[in-house]
Write a structure and sequence with these properties.
By secondary structure, this protein is mostly beta strands. The chain is built from no helices and 53 strands. A hairpin with a 2-residue loop joins strand 26 and strand 27. The termini are close together.
C-alpha cells in the first residue's frame, strides 16, 4: 500500500478502523468524505469507515468535486455521485471535473458542458473548453479563445491566442509573449506589456504582483499599475508592501501610496506598535508611519517592537527599550529574541534564560540551548548534549532531551521526532508526551484528525495519534 496525503480522516478517531485501508494497493487523500483507492490497477472509492462507495472498476478517477467524481471506463468518461451511482454514463471522449455546477465534456473532438443531471447545457461545438471560474468559461474556436457564460452565450468573442480563467472579475490574456488583463466585458484594462501577472493574489488581498522588464511592481484589483515596475525585490509585511531598489528599502500601502521612500538599508514594521525599525548607514533607529524619527539611530542592531518593548544592541550587548526610547532592560545580554506572550529568550555567559518584560529571570533550565519562543501549546524546544526535548513555562523539562531531531511542520499539536534513525511522534498538547514510539522508518505529517502514513520494514501503512497502526501483509 502506497499512501498519499491522508489529510481528511473523520474527527472521531475511535470509529476509524485502520486495518480496513491496508487491503488496497494505493489510497489517496479524502475529498468530500470519500477517498480514491486502487486495486489491481483499477480505481474505486471508499468512505471514512472503509466502506466501499464505488468498486475498483475504473481505469481512471479524479477526486470528488461538488458531489461528483470524474471516472473512465472502457476508454470513455462519465461521473458518479457520492453513493457510487453512475449519474452521467461513461460516454464522453474526455472531460473535466465539475466546477460551479458544470463540467466540460468532449465528444468527437468537440467540447461543451453538462449539468449534474447529465443534460448537455452547452452543446459540444467548441474546439476546446476550460472549467467555469467566476461565472465564465474559456472556449476555443479555430485556434482563438474567448469566454461564454453559464447560459452558453458568447460574452467575449474568440479573439485571444492564450487566456487564463477569470478571478475576481479579471482574466489574464497573452499577446506576443506578454500578459495583460481583461474585464468581463472583454475590455483590455491592463495592456499586454508584462512578463507575468499573478492574478491569484486576489484570493487573499487587493493587489496583484506584476513583472515588467524583469522588475517588480503592483496592480490594483481593477488592473491599474499603482506601484511602478521598477523594484528589484519586495516583501509583503501585513497590509504593507516593502520594496527594494538601489540597495535601499521603502514602503507602500496596498493602495499604492508611498509611505516611506527608498532610503533605508533595512525596514521592519511592527503592526502592533505602528512603528518601523530602520537602518541608516550602520545604525538602527525607529520611525513612525510618516517617516519621522521617533527613536534616534544610535543602535548597532534592533528588532521591531513587541509586547511594548524593542530589543536593541549597543556596544556588543543587547537590552530593551520602550516606545519613548527609554532603557527598560539593561544592555547585558549576548543575544536576545523579541518578546512573545510576555517572555523573551536571552543568552548571557553561554546560558539561555527567559526574562519577563521587567527583566526578571523567570525560566532557567539545565540546557545547552533554548529556542526562540514558546509555541501556542506552552512549550519551548531545548537542546542538551546534542539532543532535543521541551520545557514548559515553569522551566520544567517535560520532554527529556533524548531525540536526535524534532520536526515541527505546523502549529498542530502532534510533531514528529527522530531517535536512533527511527521516527515517532509527540503530543505537544499533552506536555510533549511520546504518543507514537520511535520504531518507524518514516512517518508523514499527521493530518488534522491524527492520521499519518508510515513505513516500517519496507512496508507502507498507517499510524494514528493513539499509537495504533496497520501495515500491508
Amino acid at each position: 500500500m502506497s499512501l498519499m496525503l491522508w489529510n481528511c480522516f473523520g474527527s472521531d478517531n475511535e470509529s476509524i478502523q485502520l486495518w480496513k485501508f491496508s487491503i488496497y494497493d494505493e489510497v489517496w487523500n479524502f475529498s468530500e468524505g470519500i477517498a480514491k483507492i486502487q486495486q489491481r490497477g483499477l480505481y474505486g472509492f471508499v468512505d471514512k469507515d472503509g466502506n466501499v462507495v464505488a468498486s475498483s472498476i475504473y481505469e481512471y478517477a479524479n477526486d470528488f468535486s461538488e458531489g461528483m467524481a470524474l471516472v473512465r471506463k472502457d476508454g470513455k468518461y462519465g461521473f458518479i455521485n457520492t453513493k457510487g451511482k453512475e449519474i452521467i454514463p461513461c460516454t464522453f471522449d474526455d472531460a473535466n471535473s465539475f466546477a460551479e455546477g458544470y463540467a466540460a465534456v468532449s465528444r468527437n473532438g468537440q467540447w461543451g458542458f453538462v449539468d449534474k443531471e447529465g443534460k448537455e447545457v452547452v452543446s459540444c461545438s467548441y474546439d476546446g473548453a476550460a472549467s467555469f471560474s467566476d461565472g465564465f468559461a474559456a472556449v476555443k474556436i479555430n485556434g482563438r479563445i474567448g469566454f461564454i457564460d453559464k447560459e452558453g452565450n458568447m460574452v467575449i468573442p474568440c479573439s485571444f491566442i492564450a487566456v487564463h480563467s477569470f478571478n475576481k472579475g479579471l482574466a489574464k490574456v497573452e499577446s506576443r509573449g506578454y500578459q495583460g488583463l481583461i474585464d468581463k466585458q472583454g475590455i483590455l484594462v491592463t495592456s499586454c506589456i508584462y512578463e507575468d501577472i499573478y492574478t491569484s493574489d486576489l484570493d487573499h488581498g487587493k493587489t496583484i504582483r506584476a513583472i515588467k522588464n524583469k522588475k517588480w511592481g503592483f496592480l490594483n484589483e481593477n488592473g491599474k499599475e499603482i506601484i511602478p515596475c521598477k523594484y528589484e525585490d519586495f516583501r509583503i509585511d501585513g497590509e504593507l508592501i516593502v520594496v527594494y531598489i538601489n540597495k535601499k528599502w521603502g514602503l507602500f500601502d496596498q493602495n499604492g501610496k508611498e509611505i516611506i521612500p527608498c532610503k533605508y538599508k533595512s525596514l521592519a514594521y511592527s503592526k502592533e506598535e505602528k512603528m518601523i525599525v530602520a537602518k541608516v548607514e550602520d545604525k538602527y533607529g525607529f520611525i513612525d508611519m510618516q517617516g519621522n524619527t521617533i527613536i534616534p539611530f544610535n543602535y548597532d542592531s534592533a528588532y521591531p517592537f513587541s509586547d511594548g518593548l524593542a530589543a536593541v544592541q549597543k556596544d556588543g550587548k543587547w537590552g530593551f527599550i520602550d516606545k519613548s526610547g527609554k532603557e527598560r532592560i539593561p544592555f547585558q545580554y549576548d543575544s536576545v529574541e523579541p518578546f512573545s506572550e510576555g517572555l523573551a529568550l536571552a543568552n548571557k555567559d553561554s546560558k539561555s534564560i527567559y526574562i519577563d518584560t521587567n527583566g526578571k529571570n523567570v525560566i532557567q533550565c539545565n540546557a545547552d540551548y533554548m529556542y526562540e519562543s514558546f509555541n501556542k501549546h506552552g512549550l519551548a524546544e531545548i537542546q542538551k548534549d546534542g539532543k532535543y526535548g521541551f520545557i514548559n513555562k515553569q522551566g520544567n523539562i517535560v520532554t527529556p532531551c533524548i531525540y536526535d531531531m524534532v520536526y515541527i511542520f505546523s502549529d498542530k499539536g502532534v510533531v514528529q521526532v527522530q531517535k536512533e534513525m527511527k521516527y515517532g511522534a509527540l503530543d505537544l498538547d499533552n506536555e510533549g508526551k511520546e504518543i507514537v514510539p520511535c520504531i518507524y522508518d518514516m512517518i508523514e505529517e499527521f493530518n488534522d484528525d491524527g492520521i499519518a502514513g508510515a513505513e516500517k520494514d519496507n512496508k507502507h501503512g498507517l499510524v494514528d495519534i493513539k499509537g495504533n497502526s496497520t501495515f500491508q501483509n
